[in-house]
């Protein structure tokens, strides 16, 4: 069999930048990669990955996984308790998401470049939204517990606060992306600023906002399962308790419940989202 | 009549107006029904979630006064009048904050490395075996659906109190979240380079390295940086379950009502998160620019 000979010299001549020493950009990237890797090893050593604690822990983890199987709630009273608090969890996520979207809409209008011309006001709104977002939902839960006491209501308020920050940012970006002309048309035909927003901006952004809200409803159901750990209602309280008292079969039952609930909400919210976007597209 | 607007004759206009009215009525009915459903859901969930508006409005003073108290020292003076007293534990908090950042870094890095190897197995267009693209995405889904803190609670039992448990929990969650995003990036590549490399007789790994990777790398790095931003925030609360970082001091301060400490730590967290967001944002914009130049 005759082998095809390859003229490497010609190829080298034709594509000089693929051969030879790496360029400046490439060298920079390689250096950054090596630096990141060294930092990773150093940080892992610092955090205790390279000691005997890690090896022992992995062994123990296998033991714990064995103790978790099979999932078993114990008795029917526990099943009823868990199901009630699962419903409570979903209720927290629902109310929190809805409340946040109601509060965030006017704030988003204040933060949108094409609605508010006053730069200072816009800047202040944006920065406050940033501060709200950079504080975790669990911290908000702890703060609200101080106001309304332990229980699910504190959880609702925590999700509401933290998502007001998220929605404010997302909504204002959606509002800034709208077409300018419908609003100009309304203003030109004598409508005021409020009417311009109501008929010139809202119809266009509504499907986007609604689909973002539905998306967050799903992710908030996950958040609502953990705020119980600090005492703000929902199934997280029972889960944390089960893990801490080493009732691991119950814990795995609760985790299974959460997985099923989140998957169900995921399906429902996806259906709703497609229904909403589809309907709007047909009208347009 | 000198109106410039042309009016249709009454006979033609009537059916048009009627159909317009009917369309408006049906849409109104639709909206009303939707509203009624939402209202019903609100009432039901308010009962379940023990919503107590009178209590909220009765105690809302607590919320504002809580923030007021946060910014007062024990002596009653405003915090910024005596920064030395406010930040009495600065060195300890900075060390914990550094630990928090390291946790976020290691958690993100380990998760991203794992996701990097999994995404080529999970992507529908390049997966070497059909069963892999069913199993691997399900595995990622399981990793990201169980909340991070739940993993952390369990790891605290196995590894003891400390950052190790938090980092591992974060790495697992990050693996799940990034695995999905990375696989989507790989699914959106142009297949021609991959086919070209495969046509020369190269192994699958070579086809991925020289055909797929160059197209995806900047996106993968960009998603990893975004995840790093999220993980910095998450790492700050890992301490709530004893899994290391500044969260341990924060929850202690909140629970024991050390008001000025709470505000001092929160301000540190907000500043750190802001700096990290700005830096990663800059790097991401550079990356997008690099990609467009090629």
| SSE string of chain B | HHHHHHHHHHH
The DSSP helix count of chain B reads 11
CATH architecture of the largest domain in chain B: Orthogonal Bundle
Kindly report the oligomeric state of this protein: heterodimer
DSSP strand tally of chain A: 0
Q: What is the beta-strand fraction of chain A?
A: under 5%
What is the CATH third-level topology name of the largest domain in chain A?
MetI-like fold
Biggest pleated sheet of chain A: none
How would you describe the shape of chain B? flat
Question: Can you put this structure into words, describing what you see?
Answer:
The complex is a heterodimer of chains A (284) and B (294). With 284 residues, chain A is mostly helical. Chain A has two domains: 8-59, no CATH class; 70-283, MetI-like (MetI-like fold). Chain A contains eleven helices and no strands. The longest helix of chain A has 36 residues, at 76-111. Chain A is flat and about 80 Å long. Chain B has 294 residues and is an all-alpha fold. Chain B folds into two domains: 9-45; 84-293, MetI-like fold, CATH 1.10.3720. Chain B is built from eleven helices and no strands. Chain B has helices spanning 10-48, 53-70, 83-86, 90-122, 132-145, 148-159, 163-187, 192-199, 204-238, 247-255, 259-293. The longest helix of chain B is centred in the N-terminal third of the chain and has 39 residues, at 10-48. The radius of gyration of chain B is 28 Å and the shape is flat. The model of chain B has no long low-confidence stretch (mean pLDDT 85). At the A-B interface, helix 2, helix 3, helix 4, helix 5 and helix 6 of A face helix 1, helix 2, helix 4, helix 6 and helix 7 of B.
Secondary structure layout:
The complex is a heterodimer of chains A (284) and B (294).
Chain A: H1 8-14, H2 24-46, H3 52-68, H4 76-111, H5 119-134, H6 137-148, H7 152-176, H8 181-188, H9 193-227, H10 236-244, H11 248-283
Helix pairs in contact in A: 4-5, 4-7, 4-9, 5-7, 6-7, 7-9, 8-9, 9-11, 10-11
Chain B: H1 10-48, H2 53-70, H3 83-86, H4 90-122, H5 132-145, H6 148-159, H7 163-187, H8 192-199, H9 204-238, H10 247-255, H11 259-293
Helix pairs in contact in B: 4-5, 4-7, 4-9, 5-7, 6-7, 7-9, 8-9, 9-10, 9-11, 10-11
């Amino acid at each position: 069999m005759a082998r095809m000979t390859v003229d490497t010299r010609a190829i080298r001549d034709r594509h000089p930048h693929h051969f030879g020493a790496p360029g400046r950009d490439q060298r920079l990237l390689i250096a950054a990669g090596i630096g990141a890797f060294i930092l990773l090893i150093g940080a892992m050593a610092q955090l205790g990955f390279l000691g005997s604690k890690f090896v022992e822990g992995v062994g123990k983890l296998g033991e714990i996984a064995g103790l978790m199987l099979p999932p078993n709630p114990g008795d029917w009273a526990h099943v009823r308790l868990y199901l009630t608090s699962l419903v409570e969890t979903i209720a927290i996520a629902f109310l929190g998401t809805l409340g946040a979207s109601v509060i965030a809409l006017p704030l988003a209008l204040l933060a949108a470049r094409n609605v508010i011309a006053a730069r200072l006001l816009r800047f202040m709104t944006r920065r406050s939204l940033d501060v709200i977002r950079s504080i975790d939902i669990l911290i908000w839960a702890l703060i609200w517990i101080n106001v309304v006491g332990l229980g699910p209501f504190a959880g609702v308020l925590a999700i509401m606060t933290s998502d007001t920050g998220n929605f404010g940012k997302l909504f204002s970006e959606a509002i800034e992306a709208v077409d300018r002309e419908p609003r100009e048309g309304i203003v030109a035909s004598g409508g005021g600023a409020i009417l311009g927003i109501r008929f010139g901006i809202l119809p266009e952004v509504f499907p986007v906002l609604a689909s973002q809200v539905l998306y967050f409803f799903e992710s908030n159901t996950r958040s609502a399962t953990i705020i119980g750990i600090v005492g703000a209602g929902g199934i997280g309280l029972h889960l944390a308790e089960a893990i801490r008292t080493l009732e691991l079969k119950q814990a795995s039952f609760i985790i299974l419940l959460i997985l099923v609930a989140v998957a169900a909400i995921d399906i429902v919210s996806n259906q709703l989202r497609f229904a909403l976007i589809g309907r709007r597209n047909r009208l347009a | 009549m000198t109106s410039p607007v042309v009016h249709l004759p009454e006979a033609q206009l009537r059916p048009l107006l009627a159909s317009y009215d009917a369309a408006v009525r049906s849409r109104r009915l639709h909206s009303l029904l939707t509203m009624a459903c939402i209202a019903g859901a609100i009432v039901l969930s308010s009962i379940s979630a023990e919503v107590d508006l009178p209590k909220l409005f009765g105690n809302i003073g607590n919320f504002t006064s809580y923030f007021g108290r946060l910014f007062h020292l024990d002596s009653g003076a405003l915090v910024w009048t005596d920064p030395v007293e406010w930040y009495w534990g600065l060195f300890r908090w900075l060390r914990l904050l550094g630990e928090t950042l390291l946790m976020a870094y290691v958690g993100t890095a380990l998760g991203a490395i794992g996701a990097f190897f999994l995404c080529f197995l999970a992507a529908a267009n390049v997966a070497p075996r059909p069963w892999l693209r069913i199993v691997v995405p399900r595995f990622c889904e399981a990793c990201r659906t169980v909340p991070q803190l739940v993993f952390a609670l369990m790891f605290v039992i196995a590894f003891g109190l400390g950052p190790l448990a938090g980092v591992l929990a974060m790495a697992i969650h990050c693996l799940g979240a990034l695995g999905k995003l990375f696989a989507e990036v790989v699914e959106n590549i142009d297949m021609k380079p991959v086919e070209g490399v495969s046509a020369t007789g190269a192994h699958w790994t070579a086809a991925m390295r020289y055909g797929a990777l160059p197209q995806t790398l900047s996106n993968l790095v960009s998603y990893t940086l975004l995840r790093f931003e999220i993980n910095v925030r998450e790492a700050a609360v890992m301490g709530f379950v004893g899994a290391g970082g500044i969260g341990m001091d924060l929850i202690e301060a909140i629970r024991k009502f050390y008001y000025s400490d709470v505000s001092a730590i929160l301000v540190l967290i907000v500043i750190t998160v802001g700096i990290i967001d700005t830096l990663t944002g800059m790097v991401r914009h550079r990356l997008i620019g690099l990609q467009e130049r090629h």
